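step=predict obj=Probable alpha-L-glutamate ligase n=465
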Amino acid sequence: MPDTENNSDTPFILGWEEWLSLPDLGLPALKAKIDTGARTSALHAFNIEKFGTADRPRVRFGINPIPERDDIEVICSADVIDQREVTSSNGERESRIVIQTNVRFGEQTWPIEVTLSDRKNMAYRMLLGRQAFPAGTTINPTEGFNQPELSFDLYKKSLTNAPKRPLRIAILTREPNNYSTRRLIEEAESRDHVIETIDTTRCYMNIRTTAPEVHYDGKTLPRYDAVIPRIGASITSYGTAVVRQFETIGTYCVNGSDGITSSRDKLHAHQILASYKIGTPTTAFASSPKDTKNLISIAGSTPLIVKLLESTQGKGVVLAETQKAAESVISAFRGLKADFLVQHFVKEAAGEDVRCLVIGGKVVAAIRRKAAAGEFRSNLHQGGVAEAVKITKSERETAIRAARAMKLNFAGVDLLRSSEGPKVLEVNSSPGLEGIEKASQRNVAGKLMDHIERSVRPNRTRKSL
């Protein structure tokens, strides 16, 4: 029996069917059948998956709270308190996960145990057995709806006050022990979430119109609440295919496959930024050896930057200080059949750039990176040093616009401070956290978890109510 008793002077009477809510699960309105002939209570659930640890098992499941409306879904999480054999009304035995949650009728609330079972063919999404009622409860089997009426319209309302729940998060990475991954795990676990690292290259996909899946080491991966892609440049094509598969399943991906693909192709990225009227250094691209001199003239006078299209961490970036040097570098890159671009060198930047970390359309941290002595690249991987910096309103707006143009929720936007205003040098879809967290003293991993918690809604409404 529940611990809470009805101590009010007014008799607590339930009919054979009632409106109720399960506030801990983010379910503001359910119609339930009251069945004193049943001992155990049951809640409709699908995609039931256990996760967590042996000493604290949890369960993630979906529910369609409105009968006949499979397009209205709520995703719930709860602690598992038991798993037991239950005999249904038709005599079938089933092993069910048991959770404890609060049930609310009007102003009265108390904890109950509930088993999870697929009730999609039942008229009621919930059944309350006799164990669920506190002492003093009267059940009137000839009447229904003795308690205050609720409405399914409650699912239309904002979910900003929805209960927090433990999330199941995956990081797609080939570097499970680097600083960025460790910080994300640390921050997620401090918030009671369960987070797992997945080697992107070990994923493979079952592509079909119904129930698409992602497999990993011989097993089907569960349904995650969110995926954080940390896709290395060397596996961009396959990595984005894996991200697309998670998107197909309906998993929230912090950065989508389109944004990752666009940001990795330097030429495509500059074309996108230009289409949004976002300032970048003058850039030229061509494929014919006969175009070398004209290509250089388009980019401007020397010195020039010659950059591989898929360069990262400052690798594959060359400073050509003279016309002859530029022609030699271009000739060498073409001889390797490598795709590259030629870019105006912003002298007034003086070997410095500004890295703005954008999460969810806001700049959450910014640092200034200075190139090492004798070096023009300010990347920390090339010996550059970083320090906290106060950015201007124009720089902040440019960074936000750049991340939005690239369709990235989590991006490192590199800016050059030119005489004409901020110029976007690069938009990174998998920015490292170590340099910016240490230099800015900001909890960037925490800001990313804030964004995930806001973005992973309990409701996924595919049609209007």
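step=describe
The longest strand covers residues 72-87.
step=end
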